[in-house]
Amino acid sequence: MNKMEEDRIECVTSSSSTERFVVEIFECPVCAHAMYPPIHQCHNGHTLCSECKTRVHNRCPTCRQELGEIRCLALEKVAESLDLPCKYSPYGCLEISPYYIKLKHEALCNFRPFSCPYAGYECSVVGDIPFLVTHLRDDHKVDMHSGSTFNHRYVKANPLEVDNATWMLTVFHCFGQYFCLHFEAFQLGMAPVYMAFLRFMGDETDARRYNYSLEVGGYGRKLTWEGTPRSIRDSHRKVRDSHDGLVIQRKLALFFSGGDKKELKLRITGRIWKEQNLESAACISNLCS
Ligand SMILES: [Zn+2]
Ligand SMILES: [Zn+2]
Ligand SMILES: [Zn+2]
Ligand SMILES: [Zn+2]
């Protein structure tokens, strides 16, 4: 047995070195992403992914020889036989999946990090929820509140001149979870509107266990909204564009503000609660503990 074979066998015996080995042989030498079938190779055996193949104008990026149409079936076969841990295993995912399913799983894995929910500008920070809560508080100076009811004022001078605006995010902490309250001005068709909505800092399946209501009014009129918070997996723009929240026509918003059109002064009250059946189940477990 030569040295290389020995090395390989040793690699296969320990799971973490197998993983490293697999990552290396399936890494496209051009883009460094994992290669999925069809995997290509040149006459000299240099491999590359199908995306890169379309970009390199039929020249092998490694040896500059003509590439041709050679599939690397051996590598594709090896890929088929592999079971690999999810790349989010350091975050707690225990999923082991075949090579081809791994990518699909990782795109939807519940342990994949969340994007920062801050809405004022694009923020590229990602992480788990406790990390993002600290990040929102320390880096974005976001208002943090405890409790499941709230009463929030949104003020803006010269509202008629503003068609697009994002107000400072507010974070509420209740039921051991975090919720983001958003308030935005935008054009809905031809009409300027304001919109308030809540996002849940967690996954969609957990978001469905909560409900919230929002209320705004004045001078004998009242608008209310009741819904399920959306997960921060959905961008605030996506939620806004689906109108999944309390939408207030500007005319009505100015009427609620006192009607002088010079200042927007809205008081939005709201409440978050747990879905009824789950709440009673939670109460029982609280009694038991
Ligand atoms: Zn590539
Ligand atoms: Zn080559
Ligand atoms: Zn996973
Ligand atoms: Zn951020």
From TrEMBL:
Give the EC number(s) under which this enzyme is classified. 2.3.2.27
Q: Which GO terms describe its molecular function?
A: ubiquitin protein ligase activity; zinc ion binding
**Which SUPFAM superfamilies does this entry report, sorted A to Z?**
RING/U-box, TRAF domain-like
The record, for Gene3D superfamilies, names: Apoptosis, Tumor Necrosis Factor Receptor Associated Protein 2, Chain A, Zinc/RING finger domain, C3HC4 (zinc finger)
Q: Enumerate the transmembrane spans.
A: none
Identify the GO cellular component terms for this protein.
Answer: cytoplasm
EC category: transferase
What PROSITE patterns does this protein map onto? ZF_RING_2, ZF_SIAH
Q: Which UniProt keywords apply?
A: Metal-binding, Transferase, Ubl conjugation pathway, Zinc, Zinc-finger
**Which InterPro entries has this protein been placed in?**
7-in-absentia-prot_TRAF-dom, E3_ubiquitin-ligase_SINA, Sina-like_RING, TRAF-like, Znf_RING, Znf_RING/FYVE/PHD, Znf_SIAH
Q: Is Acyltransferase given among the entry's keywords?
A: no
**Positions of the RING-type domain:** 28-64
Residue ranges of domain SIAH-type in the record:
81-141
What pathway does the UniProt record associate with this protein?
A: Protein modification; protein ubiquitination
> Tell me, what is an example of a GO biological process annotation in this record?
ubiquitin-dependent protein catabolic process
Query: Per the record, what are the reactions this protein catalyses?
Result: S-ubiquitinyl-[E2 ubiquitin-conjugating enzyme]-L-cysteine + [acceptor protein]-L-lysine = [E2 ubiquitin-conjugating enzyme]-L-cysteine + N(6)-ubiquitinyl-[acceptor protein]-L-lysine
Q: Which domain of life is it from?
A: Eukaryota
Report the family membership. Answer: Belongs to the SINA (Seven in absentia) family.
Q: What is this protein called?
A: RING-type E3 ubiquitin transferase
Please spell out the taxonomic lineage of the organism that makes this protein: Eukaryota, Viridiplantae, Streptophyta, Embryophyta, Tracheophyta
